[in-house]
Design goal:
By secondary structure, the protein is an alpha+beta fold. It contains 19 helices and 13 strands. Helix 14 runs parallel beside helix 15 (384-405). It starts with a helix and ends with a strand. Mean pLDDT is 83; it is low at 529-540.
């Protein structure tokens, strides 16, 4: 009997509990109810114990998770601190940008130093471009295209500006896409001002070394080049507003002479200005002019400090020549007078040797055949100042002989020619004239190409004389593509104009597959200035 039932019966009946069937049934029912209730209690206590254990475990786990969360918070805080230190000390400008141009709040201190603190609602194109509206539109258009998704992201990013000039400094900009598809752009900015300055200095140093090497091999020719180029540059300063054809010839001649002596910086600027004229049909703007003048003056200052090219003009005398003069001093006849007078003239051989060197360098660079070059100077010496313009423009004929005439070794073999190309350069006196000849055994002038180009320019092409005249017209060139060595169609025009200014003429002879000869005929004595002559002789 359940203890609670026994206790209640004692309270009700004392020690004598009636023994009736109904009471026994009631007692049994109550006893069963208590037993069932006790079983339920025990089950509930067991369940509560299990729930308590589970709650304890969950609480323990939660406390562990909270501890881990607090640890991660400390790690994130430390990493944010470290990242802030990195962003404050990294040399690059870093910021992430949404495709709508909005910049994140986290960015490197370098970016702030260079461009200022970004505005809270500012856009990357306004931030980077500053006061350059064209640059701003360029960047904004790129981000608009990225957002539209019409073009591959890599292609669009390649078209974004990679170079920015701000406050006299140059910056290189990279754009790194994040996500697939792209949702964010990491913009990385580097200050490359010092690096570019170092590269320019190294390039200038290499240029100066190459120039000095050429100058020591031909000092007289180099000094003449410096003087003539200085005159050309100063002339260009006053000739920007003159005839466009004259300016083209001037730039082309300046480019050829600079390239011949290894002054790459000046040659490149001239080439750029020629491209401007070709594209716009107008003289370069003030910025282009200033770049040419500044480039030449910078080079001139460097070479002047090293070689003293601004010093007074001196006469360079070969040692054997000097000994010959000394041997004649005791002669009662004044035969030595003519030799002394020659000291003030320039030997044409130095110019021919310089042309030969230029021809070999150009042939090698263009992949043409090796050259056999014959020089015939006939021990000729001339008034350096009077004939300086001829040497300056004659280089065009030499370059044409290589670029348009001399073939590759394989092409010459296929044509049944010797594998090595041949060039003859000659100076001689015929009567009262100086003859300068440049002759090659190359492919000759392709007259059909000349006719096609000349006709496109509205020039007459009916007769052989018309075609030969076209060779000397501005803009006529048979080059298949424009390079720094050929393609402008200006060089021969400059040569004829120069010879004409000296009272001379130009003769041209060319046969397909056999080669080309250009002959300049110039009076030895100055004559009254007249208009540039036409071709005095033509052979096709």
């Amino acid at each position: 009997m359940h203890p609670l039932v026994r206790r209640q019966l004692r309270k009700a009946f004392g020690d004598a509990v009636p023994d009736t069937t109904e009471l026994r049934a009631f007692i049994a029912a109550v006893d069963d109810a208590y037993a069932a209730s006790d079983a339920d209690r025990k089950q509930l206590e067991h369940s509560l114990e299990l729930a308590s254990d589970e709650l304890f475990e969950r609480n323990t786990k939660l406390e562990g998770q909270l501890d881990e969360l607090r640890r991660l918070d400390r790690v994130v805080a430390q990493r944010n601190h470290d990242m802030a230190r990195i962003l404050d000390n990294v040399a690059q400008g870093l910021v992430t940008v949404d495709l709508d141009g909005a910049m994140s709040g986290e960015h490197s201190l370098a970016l702030v130093r260079w461009f200022g603190e970004p505005a809270p609602s500012g856009r990357i194109w306004t931030y980077l471009a500053g006061h350059d509206p064209n640059l701003e539109v360029w960047i904004e258009l790129g981000f608009d295209t990225l957002r539209g998704g019409d073009l591959p992201a890599d292609l669009v990013i390649e078209q974004l500006p990679s170079r920015i000039d701000r406050h006299g400094r140059q910056f290189h900009v990279e754009y790194q896409p994040i996500g697939d598809p792209v949702t964010t752009i990491l913009v990385m900015v580097s200050d490359v001002t010092e690096e570019l300055a170092r590269q320019r200095a190294e390039r200038a140093q290499r240029e100066l070394i190459a120039v000095v090497e050429k100058a020591y091999r031909d000092r007289a020719g180099f000094l003449a080049f410096i003087h003539d180029t200085d005159e050309l540059v100063r002339g260009s300063e006053a000739g920007w507003d003159g005839a466009l054809a004259d300016l083209e010839r001037l730039l082309h001649t300046l480019k050829g002479n600079a390239a011949m002596f290894g002054v790459v910086s000046v040659a490149e600027v001239c080439h750029e200005l020629e491209s401007v004229i070709e594209e716009t049909g107008a003289p370069p703007d003030a910025a282009g002019r200033g770049r040419l003048l500044e480039t030449w003056r910078s080079f001139h200052a460097r070479v002047d400090r090293l070689l003293g090219v601004s010093a007074r003009r001196t006469i360079l005398v070969d040692w054997d020549e000097y000994q010959a003069v000394l041997a004649l001093l005791g002669d009662p006849e004044p035969a030595w007078a003519s030799r002394i007078r020659r000291w003030g003239d320039e030997a044409t051989r130095a110019h021919l040797e310089r042309f030969a060197e230029q021809a070999r360098e150009l042939a090698h660079r263009l992949g043409k055949a090796e050259l056999d070059i014959e020089l015939e100077d006939h021990d000729l010496r001339l008034d350096g100042q009077r004939f300086a313009p001829v040497w300056s423009t004659l280089i065009h004929s030499v370059r044409n002989a290589i670029a348009h005439g001399i073939e590759t070794a394989s092409a010459r073999r296929a044509a049944g020619k010797p594998e090595r190309g041949a060039i003859r350069m000659s100076t001689t006196v015929r009567g009262d004239e100086l003859w300068i000849e440049i002759e090659d055994d190359g492919a000759g002038i392709v007259w059909s190409e000349v006719a096609k180009r000349a006709a496109a320019l509205g020039l007459p092409v009916e007769t052989p004389h018309d075609l030969a005249e076209a060779v000397f017209a501005n803009g006529v060139s048979t080059a298949s593509q424009l390079t720094q060595d050929a393609g402008r169609g200006v060089g021969m025009s400059a040569l004829r104009a120069t010879c004409g200014e000296l009272g001379g003429s130009v003769e041209l002879a060319s046969a397909p597959g056999q080669g080309t000869m250009v002959r300049c005929r110039i009076p030895l004595s100055p004559a009254p200035r007249r208009r540039p002559s036409r071709l005095s002789s033509i052979s096709l």
